[in-house]
Amino acid sequence: MTIDLNQIEKFISELVLDKVGPIIKKKSGSQQNYDLKTGSRRVDIVTEIDKEVEQLIWKTLKDEYPTFQFVGEEGYVEGVTEITNDPTFIVDPIDGTTNFVHDFPFSCTSIGLTISKVPVVGVIYNPHLDLLVTASKGNGVKVNGEQFDYTQKYQTMGPLVLNKSIVALQPGSAREGENFTCKMKTYQNLLAYEKGFVHGFRNLGSSAMTLAYITLGHLDSYWDGGCYSWDVCAGWCILTESGGRIVGANKGEWDIPVDNRTYLAVRGTANNDKETQEKYINDFWNCVEGKLKY
Amino acid sequence: MVLSSNELKDIENKIIDLLNNEIGPIIKKRTGTTFGEYSDKTNSTDIVTEVDKSVEKKIKEFISENYPNFSFIGEETYIKGETKIGPEPTFIVDPIDGTTNFVHAFPFSCTSIGLSENGDSVLGVVYNPHIDQMFHGSKGNGSYLNGERLDVKKRPLDFTSSLVALESGYERGDTGNFLIKSKLCKAMLSENGAHVHGVRSLGSAAMNICYAAAGYLDCYWEGGPWCWDVCASKCILEEAGGILVGGNKGVWDIHLNERVYLAVRGGTTEAEQKKYVEKFWSYLEGDLVYEYSH
Q1: Given A102, A201, A217, which is nearest B168 (Cβ)?
Q2: Which of A193, B26, B182, B213 is spaced 20 to 30 Å from A101 by Cα?
Q3: DSSP state for residue A158 in the 8-state scheme
Q4: Count of domains in chain A?
């Protein structure tokens, strides 16, 4: 079976532009009723709209690609749902749900496709900024439907060096315990003069938007733990298509699956310079204090 | 003399045109292209570019041509300990707010042009050309995003449900302000502390305050900004029902050059806002201290 990735990228792009985006834009900030999960995930929010949008995406994809598997945030069952080698759509109907509830304009929809567990199509759409970033394996990256010249972009940027970089971080929903401590200490190390001494942190509250922004050359890297495959699958395809790399958040985790739960994503470079990228990753890992475990 | 609402509206419109037609395009074109050129001010994270200087010069020329009797304070021409905000109408200008964003092409740099009279902000225009967001307002005239009136929907200002903007800023090291900021960030997040919905960082004081004005954020707290970072957005915030107070405990009345600020959104009552501010202050472990305040 030959799968036309380019056609799938196009199909999903139309779905998010025509159907999903308008709902997210219209409903942003209007949801005063939401479920707060209990315990350590009390600040993890799910709204009715998440569920509605996931249904819409699932149904549309199912009609068009009836043999493909589907993993979505809302239908996910911990310990049961698995990503297999089959073509699998991995979907976050609304990434950045807290942003969505607060009308902070960085919620988006994120739809990825894996084949043999590797992300090969990625579509991210932020309707508030009307920004559509897409990719499929071998076909480069598109921004609002236009081919994005990432090589030219990276040539105009400064060097990829930790102490000259802007790093995206997200504290996430675990707010005490070892992972929280590890994150707080690592943030301090990244800022400290004698350690990472990065130019700055940014926090957009959406993993998908962050990965899209790294691809566009707006950020140099993103370090996080606690995210799920649907938060990163689409962004993973888009970022790697532009020469970026995703490894684990902890030292030495060079090869990770899409559902690794901890991630360090680093942008591409002008000359596809793997050595510079690897040095950046090693320097970053040296600032990680403790270990993120999920 | 006190400027009337009509006079202010007329000035507001002229500034919008200036930013739309002349300043915005320069900032949009030059972002991310000046990495090699920036000169170190205090350390390598405080980046000032040649574009900053030339944009300020352009704005200053426009102002002296159109408003020859008004005073002018700009980031690039400010002299520490000498420049004072007088009672006369004074343009207070940050040619590029979010300079680190500008250098890195993170699309949250903007131009901030405020006008003060009798020491308080009476007009503000903040333009982010990368995502084409023009926030503007003047005393008695309301505030707007791209011509559309900011109307923060009435909703409870509940502390644990809040989305808080915090920045790590330029300061580094284990003492003083850096430590207070790190602790505050942790106290906001921790389930043993405020346990808020989330923290966001955009790297621009003006944009953060405008986002609070629009109700995208519930509050923004920071130490380090100068009068030109906040003058424009203060008026925009207040005209949308928000308040700007001191970031240190007990400081209800601020000078424009307070250096330590807490912005809280509208869409609620004054009593709720005050309660919220006091709650916020209660998490602070000590005062942030900056030179050249007032």
Answers
A1: A201
A2: B182
A3: -
A4: 2
